[in-house]
Design goal:
This protein is an alpha/beta fold. The protein has helices spanning 39-44, 62-65, 68-77, 96-100, 162-167, 192-202, 217-228; strands at residues 2-9, 18-19, 21-26, 29-35, 54-56, 87-92, 108-113, 118-121, 124-130, 138-144, 150-153, 172-179, 190-191, 207-210, 233-235.
Length: 241
């Protein structure tokens, strides 16, 4: 199972990268997890988007969904050979209006999930936990069936104790790390020390800081590593061909 980063900023893109979007590949199966601003162009540098197997949205904030509509138009208009006539798009059902927009007949179809759902997507198994954010949002645990390799994405959330349970033993923890240590409350994203503490408590193999702010990233990394103990910490960067 491979992870390619298509976008990693929180809120809005910059000239060097877009907002949250991640491509998970296992064999010839391609899952796009979130599709923020700039995601479609970044994906086109790696593979034809028509070869996607599915899209998963962690929640419906624009920095995680900005390119969804243009992907749906792509599925309608492209002359590329499609792997699937209808692209499945998975999203939670706690926001009926945004969930309904996942279906763009006859080109894309929305499929719902809740905190109790287990999705069986080709070589991958996905489970979910609702996080603490101003809108309903879900952390995702992705497990490759053949190897047991696991990626956990916290999605957008403030710190709460059950995150460590959900992320326990992950090979890679993708942690929403939008704030430095001195961010005043209320906080709806993790601070860097909280991300490091989470990785340490969950005993993960590596921590990837995602949903990054646009400044002070070196300090962000330093603060997270100081709390992570022996868990290695890296900043998300654009990784594409």
């Amino acid at each position: 199972m491979d992870l390619q980063i298509l976008g990693y900023y929180g809120g809005y893109p910059r000239e060097d990268g877009g907002t949250s979007a991640y491509l998970i590949t296992s064999g010839d199966y391609h899952l796009l997890m979130d599709i923020g601003s700039g995601a479609l162009m970044a994906l086109e540098k790696i593979m034809p988007p028509a070869q996607l197997d599915a899209v998963l949205l962690t929640h419906y904030h624009h920095d995680h969904t900005a390119d969804l509509g243009v992907l749906q138009y792509y599925w309608q208009l492209t002359q590329d050979t499609k792997k699937h006539d209808v692209l499945p798009i998975y999203g939670h059902t706690k926001d009926p209006l945004n969930y309904a927009a996942l279906t763009f007949e006859p080109f894309t179809k929305g499929f719902g999930y809740t905190a109790d759902t287990t999705l069986d997507l080709g070589p991958l198994t996905l489970t979910f936990m609702e996080t603490q954010h101003p809108v309903p949002a879900f952390a995702v645990r992705v497990t490759e069936k053949a190897t047991g390799k696991t990626i956990v994405n916290t999605s957008d959330t403030r710190y709460f104790s059950d995150l460590a349970r959900f992320a326990t033993g992950a090979d890679l923890l993708m942690a929403d790390t939008n704030f430095l240590a001195d961010q005043p409350a209320p906080r709806w994203h993790l601070t860097a020390p909280e991300a490091g503490t989470l990785a340490n408590a969950a005993n993960v193999n590596q921590l990837l800081l995602t949903h990054l702010p646009h400044a002070n990233q070196a300090l962000l990394l330093q603060q997270a590593q100081a709390s992570a103990g022996d868990v290695p910490v890296v900043l998300a960067k654009i990784i594409c061909a």
